[in-house]
Amino acid sequence: MSLSRRPFGFSLGRTAVGAVLRGGRTIRGRIFLAFLMLSAITAALGGYAAFGIMTTGALVDKTYDRSLMAINYARAAATDLAMLQAAVARARLAGDSAERRTLEARIEALTQSFEEDLEIAADRAQSERATREAAAAKDAVAHWLAARREFGPDQQTVDVWQALDAHAAVAEQHIDLLINFTAGDGFSYRQTARADVARDVRLSIFATSLAIVLSGIVALLLLRQIVRPVADASTVASRIAAGELTVRVPEGGDDEFGALLRAMAVMRDNIAAMMQEEVAQRRSAQSLLADAVQGSIEGIVVVDAGGCIVLANARAAALLGIDQAEPGHRPLSDARGSAVADALLAMPGHATLTAETHTADGRWLRISRSPTREGGFVAVCSDVSLLKEQEDQLKRSNAQLDAALSNMLQGLCLYDAEGGLLVYNRRFCDMFGVDAAALRPGMSIRDVARLVEASSDNGRAIDLLVEQEALLQRGLSASLCCPIRTDCIVALKQQPTAEGGWIATYEDVTQRYEAEARIITMARKDALTGLANRMVFGERLEEAAAHLDEGAGAGFATLCLDLDRFKEVNDTLGHPIGDGLLRSVAERLQGCLRDTDLVARLGGDEFAIVQAGVQAGTHARRDASALAKRLIAAFQQPFLLDGHTVTVGLSIGISLAPEHGTSPEKLLKSADLALYRAKATGRGCWAFFDEEMDVELRKRRALESDLKKAVGNGEFELVFQPIVKLDRQRIASCEALLRWRHPERGYVSPADFIPLAEETGTIGEIGEWVLRKACSEAATWPSNIRVAVNVSAAQFKNAAVVRAVMDALAASGLPAHRLELEITESVLLNDSVTTLATLHTLKRLGVRVAMDDFGTGFSSLSYLQSFPFDKIKIDQSFVRNLAAPGNSRLIVRSVVGLGRSLGITTTAEGIETEAQLEQLRLEGCDEGQGYLFSRPVPSATIRELVTALGRNAA
Ligand code: C2E
Ligand code: MG
Ligand code: MG
């Protein structure tokens, strides 16, 4: 794999070299070696042939260049000699000296040319003999020319001429020899060349034959090494391919063919294994199929072209009423009478058909027939009784759904994922004035809108549908309201369905809208009195404040009104009378006002008035006072309610705009502050706001914020006052009384800060601290002395008080029966059911509960019945007045008597004198508390006191 990815040359070189190095053991190696050898032989042959040609070329050089050229030059020299002879002769015969000189020059030139030609001829001949003859010829000419000079021109004898000719003849002889030697040597060169060529031809023939033989040997070897194993392998492969998996695969060597043959053996084995596995799988699939057919709850029957049953599973056999064990090829008509056979026989033609039939036992069968290739058919019979039942059910449900849709109060349209109408109801058609017959499933909402447009001229209905279409296109769920006619407002609600479509409901909300409009009007009125409510009052104040800038002198007064003793009326005479009183009050107030003024009920017995057109400045107070006077005077007359004569007073606080402020909030708050002042002054009074009230308010706020920090700063401490058993003068319990040590104000009385803590909600935290501290202190006292803890009404607003008590007991380890909780009637005034439940829970814990300051409220007796108090504490005001003439003594007597009859301990508070003590003893009061015994003292002192007295008691 990695090798094949390498560059081909690299791979080949590497493998070929490797093959050579491995000694040609692989086929590739052998082929490589064989071709290497053949290449080497060819290269040698080529080299040798080139060498032969080069040798032949050299011979040609020698033959042509040298021999022929030498002959040519020798002949040229012979010519030069002949011309020289002629020139010499002429020169000897020339009479004119000028001519002689010319001839002498010519002889000179010819001599030089002769010598040069001879030199070249000797040089090219490359023959020693020729060289010698050339030198001899040269010498002969030299001798000849020398002899010529010896014989002057005047010696013109025959001897001279012969002597000279003899010299010339010697030269000619040498030249002839030169030519002959040159030609002879040329011939011998040619012979040598021929011999060389003949030798080369023989050598080439031999080498070619050798190469052919070697190639034959290589081919033979390749045949033996490759072709035969390939043929064997191919035969084996063909046999394996033909499925002959038992074929013997010959064993190969350790080369590629060996590997190939071994791979083929493995392949053969693998194919055999795979085939075995497949056969096994097919067998199991067949048996599974057979099991499936047999076990199928559907009846399966195969009938051949002749109408005979070829196969029937158990279910089909049962349906056909035949024995499944019977051999096949039984005519289907034999099973006539069975519902399945009858239905199959009744089916026309041979095509695929489905029929349903009803069996004798009341079941429904669905029979599906499909033709087989052999001309018969296969039939599948399914019991569809359940399906039929479901279909019937579905039909019934659909009918019910249709009925529901038709009777729906809302119009409904259901659209599919493509926006085509699926379902709609009659109400939709009625609402939009469309003919139900004109609506078709598949219509788009636009088509529906067109229908609506065509069937009525009401453009507003189309507006709704167009808007709905736009929402649909954006794929938005929506709820929108739109009037589609003057008398019809429709609320559309459109949301996607799980199938990707949309469902839209159209509800006629006209009546609801009208009702809401009425409610909105009512929301501005006080339901009980019909007066304007707080919201309208606020708006009127805003309006009046906004007009302040409009003209000099324009002002108005804000009056806050509170009914005196209204709560008593409500509590004593009941809520219906209370409500009647409020209605009558509203009427009376209204009667005192001008049209431009506004009176509103702010809640409970709180009313407020905006007095318009009050002149700013000194007249303002006069105008507002006049109204206040008028109002208070109107309340002098008692109200007659359901046979009861009721008198209630009115307290009024007044703020003036712009004198006391211009913002509605400030004016209302100022009037409210003034109302507190009016109430404090006495019932049936009015008071104007002044800045001092604001100062008081700020002081109160400062106190509030100090109070919030007081617990964290550890500014609280507890003092304890003993409660004594009057008969034996021993301490029965001690009351824990809270003291606030303010860093600047000094000791602040609980009477001053407890109401504030109640209003601001700090009482919860303070109360928990008191409980924890009192319990842990009491845990150090003798076990027969209890601790009494005051619990405020505000702490009963939730069940936290129970948790606080439990935590305090658990933390201190004080037994529950040693803790006494003192509550006032006010606890029972609010939400008495919850409060009573809380009190009972506390009682179940084992804690004692005392009614504190008894006699100061006005319905105490009923409260005593509602809860099993352990103790009644008679308020100190009665004790104080015991000696004075009046009812105090009688009241004390009756309370003590009541306590005794109910089994409740009575304790008198505020005993300061021996006379008071004596009288209380005479009246039979059980316990007493007061300065006579001890003032409230710090915990260290009380500890000493209770320890000493506890010891005495013991
Ligand atoms: P209270 O529960 O009726 O407590 C008795 C009050 O009468 C105490 O006043 C006590 O000092 C005072 N007193 C006792 N003997 C005499 C006497 O012989 N003559 C006179 N003139 N007064 C006497 P104090 O401590 O100022 O407490 C006033 C009220 O503050 C308590 O009335 C109680 O309602 C409330 N209070 C005190 N501590 C707590 C507290 O921890 N939690 C709550 N929620 N209220 C507390
Ligand atoms: Mg108390
Ligand atoms: Mg008290």
Automatic annotation (TrEMBL):
Stretches assigned to the EAL domain: 700-950
InterPro entries: Biofilm_reg_signaling, EAL_dom, EAL_sf, GGDEF_dom, HAMP_dom, HlyB_4HB_MCP, Nucleotide_cyclase, PAS
Protein's UniProt keywords contain Ribosomal protein: no
Annotated ranges, domain GGDEF: 554-691
Domain HAMP: 224-276
SUPFAM superfamilies to which the protein is assigned, alphabetical: EAL domain-like, HAMP domain-like, Nucleotide cyclase, PYP-like sensor domain (PAS domain)
Signal peptide stretch: none
Pfam family, one: EAL
GO MF annotations in UniProt: kinase activity
SMART domains, A to Z: EAL (SM00052), GGDEF (SM00267), HAMP (SM00304), PAS (SM00091)
Spans through the membrane: 31-53, 203-223
Location of the PAS domain: 285-326
Keywords for the protein's UniProt record, in alphabetical order: Kinase, Membrane, Transferase, Transmembrane, Transmembrane helix
Annotated GO biological process: regulation of DNA-templated transcription; signal transduction
GO cellular component: membrane
Name by which UniProt lists this protein: Diguanylate cyclase (GGDEF)/phosphodiesterase (EAL), with PAS sensor, signal transduction histidine kinase and methyl-accepting chemotaxis domains putative membrane-associated protein
Source organism of the structure: Methylorubrum extorquens (strain ATCC 14718 / DSM 1338 / JCM 2805 / NCIMB 9133 / AM1)
Source organism phylogeny: Bacteria, Pseudomonadati, Pseudomonadota, Alphaproteobacteria, Hyphomicrobiales
